């Protein structure tokens, strides 16, 4: 089988953010090669980004790619496309996926690694979906989610209904379910939704999605936010989508809304769309555009 690739060379200080935006807007896997990856990037200070597609890129996908480059201030960058007859890259990423503590006491691991002793064990085979726990935005969301669910349990509000909008591999919904809650993951990309569903049995779920800890997880394809009420809603998606979905996310969330995937420079614009919600938690992680950190925000409905 052959695959297609769109390739772009980008300055290293903007490559991480660009890869993230491309993955979101084209809803596909993006490989990033630099001087530290197994296949080396082009030179010091320049990364190679490879957008993987199953079919030849369409004009809309190329226009979307040009839009991402404009947003990253790289409108002049060359875009190459090529056909790939070797699909070794499909497995190549596996070398980089090792167990990672996504939240205190919760470890995500690939199926071929043994579970960490004493940890809440999340088995994730991402396929082409986003979310193995290695990205800072996943960890920011996972930590905030675990904190909110621990608090709900202490206050006697558990088990909670939890919505994971943009669930990717299902990692956040599975975390909630393994903590004993009832989680629904919604994902615009049907291949990612399929990967999330395939992760259920890997985590010991029965046919109804019931997990050993007593919780449950289900996954649905969709771009709309389902009607609530959900006690906790988590969305790790790029800022423009957090803005676009603000009204339905606010409407479906009864108490705690966790937003991740935004940069510090986008915080004000995103929060402007969440009137009536107080910021009760805010954590930053380095690693995106130079000097612009990733943020995880926990919002609480006024009066809740
Ligand atoms: C950054 S990934 C997050 C995956 C996972 N929740 C995590 O934290 O690692 C964001 C996901 O949101 C999906 N997405 C984008 N817009 C969406 C929408 N309107 N509704 C549902 N999913 C969406 C993308 O396809 C992508 O898989």
Would you write up a description of this structure?
With 304 residues, the protein is an alpha/beta fold. It folds into 2 domains: 3-89, Alpha-Beta Plaits; 136-301, Rossmann fold (3-Layer(aba) Sandwich). Helix content is 30%, strand content 30%. The chain has 9 helices and 14 strands. The strands form 3 sheets. A 7-stranded mixed beta sheet has the order 10-9-8-11-12-14-13. Strands 2-3-1-4 form a 4-stranded antiparallel beta sheet, with helices on one face. Strands 5-6-7 form a 3-stranded mixed beta sheet, with helices on one face. Helix 1 packs antiparallel against helix 2 (59-71) and helix 4 packs parallel to helix 5 (171-178). The longest helix is centred in the middle third of the chain and has 19 residues, at 136-154. The protein is globular, with a radius of gyration of 19 Å. The mean pLDDT is 89. It binds S-adenosylmethionine.
Give a short overview.
The protein is an alpha/beta fold and 304 residues long.
Which characteristics define this entry?
30% strand, Rossmann fold, four-stranded antiparallel β-sheet, 304 residues, 2 domains
Write the layout of secondary structure elements.
Layout: E1 3-11, H1 12-26, E2 30-33, E3 46-53, H2 59-71, E4 79-84, H3 89-92, E5 100-103, E6 106-109, E7 120-123, H4 136-154, E8 161-165, H5 171-178, E9 182-187, H6 190-202, E10 216-221, E11 230-236, H7 239-244, H8 246-252, E12 253-263, H9 267-271, E13 277-285, E14 294-301
Parallel strand pairs: 6-7, 8-9, 8-11, 9-10, 11-12
Antiparallel strand pairs: 1-3, 1-4, 2-3, 5-6, 12-14, 13-14
Residues 24, 27, 130-131, 137-138, 141, 164-168, 171-172, 186-189, 192, 223, 236-237, 241, 245, 261 line the site of S-adenosylmethionine.
């Amino acid at each position: 089988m052959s695959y297609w690739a769109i390739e772009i060379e980008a300055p290293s200080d903007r490559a991480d953010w660009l890869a993230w935006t491309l993955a979101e807007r084209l809803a596909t896997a993006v490989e990033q090669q630099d001087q530290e990856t197994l296949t080396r990037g082009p030179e010091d200070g320049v990364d190679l980004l490879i957008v993987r597609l199953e079919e030849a890129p369409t004009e809309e996908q190329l226009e979307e790619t040009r839009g991402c480059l404009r947003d990253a201030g790289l409108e002049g960058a060359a875009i190459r496309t090529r056909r790939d007859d070797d699909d070794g890259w499909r497995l190549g990423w596996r070398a980089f996926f090792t167990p990672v503590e996504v939240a205190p006491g919760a470890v995500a691991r690939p199926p071929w690694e043994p579970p960490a002793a004493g940890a809440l064990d999340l088995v994730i085979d991402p396929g082409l979906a986003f979310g193995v726990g290695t990205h800072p935005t996943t960890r920011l969301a996972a930590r905030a989610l675990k904190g909110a669910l621990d608090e709900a349990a202490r206050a006697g509000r558990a088990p909670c209904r939890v919505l994971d909008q943009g669930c990717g591999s299902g990692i956040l919904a599975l975390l909630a379910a393994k903590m004993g809650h009832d989680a629904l993951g919604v994902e615009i990309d049907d291949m990612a939704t399929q990967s999330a569903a395939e992760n259920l049995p890997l985590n010991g779920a029965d046919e109804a999605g019931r997990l050993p800890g007593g919780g449950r997880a289900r996954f649905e394809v969709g771009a709309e936010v389902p009607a609530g009420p959900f006690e906790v809603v988590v969305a790790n998606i790029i800022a423009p989508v957090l803005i676009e979905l603000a009204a339905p996310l606010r409407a479906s969330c009864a108490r705690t809304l966790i937003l991740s995937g935004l940069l510090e420079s986008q915080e004000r614009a995103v929060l402007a769309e969440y009137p009536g919600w107080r910021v009760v938690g805010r954590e930053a992680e380095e690693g995106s555009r130079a000097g612009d950190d990733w943020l995880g925000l926990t919002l609480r409905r006024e009066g809740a």
